[in-house]
């Protein structure tokens, strides 16, 4: 297994180092190459993602990314020039974001019930296409536009993937989240494609929720969701909220997948670089470790993936929630659990 | 006071009738004209908002709307043809949505703290402009676009209003919510205008939050917010979530304001027509009653507005939360409280 690692900024390197520790327990022979992309490189060379590096990244089986973003870099530069560029260049059309409330974890809701959902967020279209502009900038007549671009090709592959995932889950339930009552054109395309693809999946029950109502459901009745399929921006919003509801961004993993496998998929915690707590051992590496589990699952190492997830579940059920330990201590615990194979525990 | 009332669909007529009962206690001389816009009219005549009716509505001091939407009408028809058309024709650029966790009300959060915020949502621009289209519909090469349109004129008047409101509140704090790291053009316009207007309000502290992070804050630390200013779509999403966090959509009021007062402003509960519970006396009219309070406040009847809000606060603090009574019973209680002037209670 050839793995490219982009530790990135802030807490990125810290959490990635623990994630690799855990990976080492199940895949000691993995070949790992580090890429120093991020704020430091941009400051010293002005580079965000050189073509040559992109070419090298393509030669790997998968990419593990820590976090990108730094207060010393103007907002958006690293996000658009590095993170989103990777997602778009490598055609990461399925942005996979599970949200599970693990036993022992207390989220902010008084009574969340059982939450075990997965958001299939479209990753290469919508309002993320950098399609828009400024007219008459800095005058009182300025106009700023942002164009959400949605294609039948792009929507169908993501909707198909979401139905496939729903088919494999016990509840076989899929919710389309959109804002069809206002976004008439994109809403129509998404609705029609969900209807079409649903015909091939008669076992899967289908629901629809407007994005505003979906945020209400996520805090009043999150267990109603199984698989959610949605566009890039709504998915961005809903997955942060779902992460919060299931115990916080310290636990939320994600995969940016090219389902065709033409390009390496990229795995990253949903959290950002959290510069305020960087370098102090305060970051929870669990989200990064769970991202490694998604990575292994994607590459077909189902057993190793499950072993890591079970170790995380065990640790979450037994850790002192108020003081779970330093970044390194949590990493050590998870690595030990994985090596002792706690499969039977959960 | 000349008031136009659009009871609308579903629970709309029920909650409006209680809201008018309460209004009657403070403004017995109000002249009220009903307009039967909504699903029934569309079914029988095909009309959504005839020009003649729009002309009549303009002759009023304010509009009270119940709810719009019915399962027998294709999604979007009533929303776009009636509700949004009213907001756009009457230039309701400030969509004002307070969210307050009243004493005695239990929201879904285990520990919400004190929540007393107001969202100033832009109401006439953004992705709500019906600006987009379908290319090659029903082919595999279909493309659907949605254009978010943001103007300096449109953003500035809303941001200015938000700063004015922040200035009048004890905490004098304003948060811009956007997604500037991805929506480069609209994000740039909003950020620059907030910066500009902030210079005229040195007393107001200013924060920024990405919309995804803002949903996390709303469930982990909602008391951080005072005034939030944001675009039409983000405001739609955040205000539903804020309503949920503060005890639900049965309590959330809103005003669609034309700050210039060239057109009548329109007041409505944030909730929809809830056809599943319509006609059964199950709907909570509190959101509609609080919308009347916003209406009176907007028209300068500050004392009457406060009296209604205090009555609602008293009722919420003392009502049996599990069974607050029928729509009519709640309306009767609130009307009685308003008439007995409970000002001193809260
Ligand atoms: C950093 C930002 C560009 C990114 C996004 O909006 O996709 C992040 O919020 C995420 O969800 O991965
Ligand atoms: C019904 C719909 C068009 C409307 C909106 O999106 O503005 C509603 O959700 C609201 O918030 O008032």
From TrEMBL, chains A, B:
It is found in: Cytoplasm. Substrate binds at residues 87, 97, 121, 212. Mg(2+) binds at residues 212, 236, 240. InterPro entries: ICDH/IPMDH (IPR050501), IsoCit/isopropylmalate_DH_CS (IPR019818), IsoPropMal-DH-like_dom (IPR024084), LeuB_actb (IPR023698). GO terms for molecular function: 3-isopropylmalate dehydrogenase activity. Keywords: Amino-acid biosynthesis, Branched-chain amino acid biosynthesis, Cytoplasm, Leucine biosynthesis, Magnesium, Manganese, Metal-binding, NAD, Oxidoreductase. It catalyses: (2R,3S)-3-isopropylmalate + NAD(+) = 4-methyl-2-oxopentanoate + CO2 + NADH. Homodimer. This is 3-isopropylmalate dehydrogenase. It comes from Amycolatopsis rhabdoformis.
């Amino acid at each position: 297994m050839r793995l490219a690692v982009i530790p990135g900024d802030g807490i990125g390197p810290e959490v990635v180092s623990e994630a690799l520790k855990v990976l080492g327990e199940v895949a000691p022979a993995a070949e790992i190459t580090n890429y120093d992309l991020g704020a430091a490189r941009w400051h010293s060379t002005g580079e965000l993602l050189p073509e040559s590096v992109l070419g090298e990244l393509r030669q790997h089986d998968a990419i593990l990314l820590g976090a990108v973003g730094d207060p010393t870099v103007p907002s958006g530069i690293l996000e658009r020039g590095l993170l989103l560029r990777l997602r778009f260049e490598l055609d990461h059309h399925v942005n996979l974001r599970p949200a599970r409330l693990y036993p022992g974890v207390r989220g902010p809701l008084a009574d969340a019930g059982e939450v075990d959902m997965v958001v299939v967020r479209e990753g290469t279209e919508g309002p993320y296409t950098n399609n828009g502009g400024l007219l008459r900038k800095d005058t009182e007549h300025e106009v700023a536009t942002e164009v959400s671009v949605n294609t039948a090709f792009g929507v169908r592959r993501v909707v198909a993937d979401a139905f496939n995932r729903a088919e494999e889950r016990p509840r076989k339930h899929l919710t389309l989240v959109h804002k069809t009552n206002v976004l008439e054109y994109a809403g129509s395309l998404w609705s029609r494609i969900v209807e079409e693809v649903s015909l091939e999946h008669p076992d899967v029950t289908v629901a629809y929720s407007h994005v505003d109502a979906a945020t209400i459901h996520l805090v009043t009745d999150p267990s109603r969701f199984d698989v959610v399929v949605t566009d890039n921006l709504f998915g961005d919003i809903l997955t942060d909220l779902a992460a919060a509801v299931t115990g916080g961004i310290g636990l939320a993993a994600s995969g940016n997948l090219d389902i065709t496998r033409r390009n390496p998929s990229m795995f990253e915690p949903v959290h950002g670089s959290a510069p305020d707590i960087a370098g102090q051992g305060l970051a929870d590496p669990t989200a990064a470790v769970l991202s490694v589990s998604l990575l292994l699952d994607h590459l077909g190492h189902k057993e190793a993936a499950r072993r890591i997830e079970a170790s995380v579940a065990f640790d979450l059920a037994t850790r002192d929630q108020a003081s779970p330990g330093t970044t390194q201590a949590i990493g050590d615990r998870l690595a030990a659990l994985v090596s002792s194979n706690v499969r039977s525990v959960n």
